[in-house]
Amino acid sequence: MEMFISGKAAQAGSGKRFEVHNPATGDLIDTVPAGEIDDVRSAVDACEEAFGKWSATTSRERGKILFRAAQMVRDRTKDLAILLTSEQGKPFKEARDEVQGFANTLEYFAGISASLRTGLVPLAHERYGAVIRKPIGVCGAIIPWNVPVILMGWKVGPALVAGNTLVLKPASSAPLTCLQLAGILKEAGLPDGVLNVVTGRGDIIGDEIARNPRIRKVSFTGKTSTGKHLMETASASLKRVTLELGGSDPMIVCDDADLKAAVDGAVRGRFYNCGQTCTAVKRLFVFESVADDYIRHLQAKIASLKVGNGMADGVDLGPMNNRKQLDRIVEVVNTVRAKDEGKILYGGAAPKGPAYDRGFFYTPTLVTDVAADSVLLREEIFGPVLPVVVVKDLDEAIERANDTVYGLGSSIWTKSIERATMGCERLQSGITWVNQHTKVPPDLPFGGIKDSGLGRENGLEVIDQYTEMKSVLINP
Ligand SMILES: NC(=O)c1ccc[n+]([C@@H]2O[C@H](COP(=O)([O-])OP(=O)(O)OC[C@H]3O[C@@H](n4cnc5c(N)ncnc54)[C@H](OP(=O)(O)O)[C@@H]3O)[C@@H](O)[C@H]2O)c1
Known about the structure:
There is one protein chain. The protein folds into two domains: 4-245 and 450-473, Aldehyde Dehydrogenase, Chain A, domain 1, CATH 3.40.605.10; 249-434, Aldehyde Dehydrogenase, Chain A, domain 2 (3-Layer(aba) Sandwich), CATH 3.40.309.10. The protein has helices spanning 37-56, 59-75, 77-88, 92-113, 148-161, 176-187, 202-211, 224-235, 259-271, 288-303, 323-338, 375-378, 394-401, 417-426, 462-465, and strands at residues 3-5, 8-10, 17-21, 28-33, 120-122, 128-135, 138-142, 165-169, 195-197, 217-221, 240-244, 249-253, 281-287, 343-346, 365-368, 385-391, 409-413, 431-434, 453-454, 467-473. The protein has 476 residues and is of the alpha/beta class. A seven-stranded mixed sheet has the order 14-15-16-13-12-17-18, sandwiched between helices. It has a six-stranded mixed sheet with strand order 9-8-7-10-11-19, sandwiched between helices. It has 15 helices and 20 strands. NADP nicotinamide-adenine-dinucleotide phosphate (NAP) binds next to helix 7 and helix 8.
């Protein structure tokens, strides 16, 4: 596939390409251009050329295009989901949900397009001031490989509906579905140059998006370390920055929780997308009075999960997305073993057999008796390993849950309103779920605190991040 600049398929100026492989089989799926800095500059030229007309259309007109694109995506869900599974690895049913999530997100932003307005502010002496909003101009978006399609929706939807133009860089190991979606947006009527997708290395394409002074805002999703570096680069041009970074979400299971629901929730929350989700359950705290029972059921449920090629029937966990991710998980589990940081109750190795030989598979892993200073509790573990910690009560659970540099999501499982409220008030995170984990509808603002990021995506609130506010006073 080619990059997508000014509404056309474009090859990299350098003519170089890189390969995209299926993480379940190692097969080559396609090649894409290895873009260079000049390709980003061409995309910015296209954005600037398109900006005048695009920003002058009404937000309602812009919303209509998003609605049409959402419908076209729904009609092509199956093909898009197959492509997503083949490049990313996740089970087909998860890929299908993600594609539908993209359509939902576009529809959400199309839906609010008709009501984007600002108001008058009463001032002294029966005068009024007004706050008007202007699109920022050329924006940049950088996305990772773990949920590339949904994250593309989170960035494209609000940026475009607010009247901006966009240069988007997909992840190098999962760029294909994003390129297809850009083509669908064009088919739905998006004018040339409004959305441009440039493929290539993060430290070249992503760095230029952060550095280029003609790009006035960048929304980045990825690792905390990359986000910090990007913010430094972007500071030279005083670019607005939204950072959606790593997390180490705690899940607290109280002694009055519906234990079956909490087992199902933990398994889905941790092992969905093979554990490669920013808001995955990465540390589980369970009350000691129910711990034995809970852990027994948890282990049984984990043992029932089927690992395999995401296109096979009944598969719960596909492969990890790439070799680096798998190597890191192997290293983490080896460290736990070598330093005696926990008891591996289930898993702890790659599955064996011819079906697994060529892919980046890892068995879902359950670790108990986790040492307080274990790597499992200190770092973001981006793979299918669930550490369980036994606590005596809610105070201890919350204290330990907050003992992390991250603050993305958190959940508390209880029937008590009082405990649920205490969790919502005291857990340090951008979102707290009660009796669920990981659901992120586009209607609610989403983002992290502490090292999990800056700013919010989604909800009506994200429009603040894609518009400049201007105060106006008129003297009659
Ligand atoms: N908070 C959230 O909403 C959220 C959602 C999803 C994921 N995440 C986080 O994302 C991380 C996993 O993603 P990842 O491993 O793909 O992260 P990553 O290595 O930081 O890469 C993310 C994106 O940044 C690009 N990039 C790499 N180096 C760059 C640089 N120097 N300047 C600018 N861009 C650069 C990458 O390009 P290449 O692919 O070409 O290297 C990719 O497109 C996890 O920490 C996860 O928690 C957060």
